[in-house]
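INTERNAL AUDIT FORM
Audit reference: QA-55
Scope: verify that the stored structure record matches its stored sequence.
Auditor: D.O.
Record contents follow.
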Amino acid sequence: MAEELAGIALTQLIRPGCPVVLGSFLSNTDMQSGSPGFGGPESAIGLLCTGQLARHYGLPWRAGGGGLTSSQTVDAQAAYDALNTMLPAFLAGANLVMHAAGWLESGLVSCFEKFIVDIELLRVLREEFTPLRVDEESLAFGAHVEVGQGGHFLGCEHTLERFRDCFYRPLLSSTENFERWQKRGGQDAAERAGVIWRESLERYEQPPIDPALREQLEQFVSRRRTELGD
């Protein structure tokens, strides 16, 4: 925090009024191996505390939380590490989150399957943090009147109108029973994620861009590579 405030103060000395963002990134270190430990409780506590400090100083906050994990593969650890660093960033009111999807092996590599897992987490969190809508339609008093005492709601009009898109529809997660899941290939989350990203790439269509603008961009990249010695 001292480093961040010193940088912000220096920025204001050089250019008063320049917009700034409080940026943070922290993790604990495994004291037995020296490896960073992303996704542990220390990461979550640090994010929650940093969010409070950012609000105390009245600064927008770039959270160091995201889909972070120390896992070497797309497994249960990769998922719960990512949730344990993304959720605190949501709860602490982050204004900007980097590394929100695709991070694996302490950031040494990016992974398409992990990217899809993290997208599922983001979709779930967005749904959870959406304010509740309470009105006649959501309370469904009409369905209660239709069903009455001793009935069930599966066949009532309110259910039939909404069953296709009611409640959150997962991108990746499976809600099938074991027999149906096994009959359809028995794929785990990582395997399903692999199917999703490949299908997404096949459907992707590059947005149109003006040829003259593309040429200007290519010239800019070439010039900067020369200037930077790349």
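Auditor finding: record pair retrieved intact. The chain has ten helices and seven strands.
Action required: none
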